[in-house]
Amino acid sequence: MTVLISGASLFLGTILGFLLGMVRSRKNRLVNPLIGFFVDVMRGTPFIVQVFIVFFILPEFGVELEAFTAAVLAMTIMGSAFICEIVTAGILAVPKGQWEASSSSGLNILQQLRLVIMPQAMKTILPPLVGQYVLLIKDSSVVSAIGVVELTRVGWLTVVRIPEGLMVFSLVAALYFAISYPLIRISNSLERKLTVNRVSL
């Protein structure tokens, strides 16, 4: 369940975060303040409050979600805000001359992003993006508060029956580490390779 929730929210949050980041990087006077406000709210409020709003408050407006769906939705929204900032920073790190050169070549804005800007921006985006994935996986423990039977929830249910809290939650921590460790290694590897590439340039 932890892997399912994390995988679904990472996939959806990445798509939404990249879309928001690409839009925000264009500095549109109408859209940017709205995206900025959304990002600030998501980053400035506790994730557990966001989960409670999705699961307990939305039904008051006629939107009733199962615990799993609410968990994925809350994690997707929260993750997209952080990923949006990472993507925006990566795009803005690309020299302005690259935009001008691609524009003078007759490429439209989508072609500029896809063919010229994003390949360069990904060098800046990838390491913090993978690191953010690790944080999101750990944040999945919060959704146990709405009854999702994921890893942390199973730990609590086990402790109720077997009063060996240290052993049980040490195992829970080890399992979270086992899920996150490959991403940590990927993040470290990407950071080293990209640093070497920048130095060689």
Secondary-structure topology with pairs:
Layout: H1 2-25, H2 31-44, H3 47-57, H4 67-92, H5 96-104, H6 109-139, H7 151-161, H8 165-200
Please give the count of helices. 8
CATH T-level topology = MetI-like fold
* CATH class identity: Mainly Alpha
Total beta strands: 0
Q: Helical percent range? A: over 70%
CATH architecture: Orthogonal Bundle
Mean pLDDT, nearest integer?
87
Q: How far is the N terminus from the C terminus?
A: 44 Å
What is the assembly state of the chains in this entry?
single chain
What's the CATH superfamily, by name? MetI-like
Low-confidence spans: none
Order of helices and strands: HHHHHHHH
Count of separate structural domains: 1
Shape category: flat
Content of β-strand: under 5%
Cα radius of gyration in angstroms: 20 Å
Structural class: mainly alpha
Instruction: Report on the biggest sheet.
Output: none
